[in-house]
Amino acid sequence: MAGWDDDSPQLRRNLDKVRVGLRESARRRDKPVVELARQWHRDTMAGLDVPKKEYVGRFRGEPSAEVPVYIGAAEGVPHADVEAQLKKFEELLQEAIAVLDRSYRAGAELDKDGVAAVTDVAGWTHAEWVRIHPFANGNGRTARMWADYVLVRYGLPPVVRLRPRPDDGYGAAGERAMAGDWEPMARYIRRKLLELPPATPRTKRR
Question: Does this model's pTM top 0.85?
């Protein structure tokens, strides 16, 4: 059985399944709830060798997942605080998404202000998930799924790849996220959009 983070055929199949589901959910404009991420985590880890099976699909602080996490020298949010911080994350995300939904109807092409607003929300969502580190493992992938979800919801291409882990500034933005600074991740996402081939539609000219 392949390891949970190995570049295996099973993991690639799992991620393909998750991509399809989350993009369909984003295009339907489903309400963004943390339970989406719980299911993404379960689907991603299916059939893989995970150090502790009880961690799969469980947020830290829940029974059998009362564990600390460390990202380099930085410690993630204490497991006793994860539930409250996820609740706040969900509330703030839903507020931001509600504003965007009112401003940009489904299928509408974004203007430059719209792209800036959406990438800010995508960057914040990614960075805040990394900062909280709700799972014992697999948080980076899940954070990239959240960014994918927000971008696709408003018709933008999912430029933050799930695998392999992005480089070219992504790691540095993640480090800033651990310190509570989400703006570097938003700037990273905007840069990746600008790096797309010119033929790829991104904004509506005004």
Answer: yes
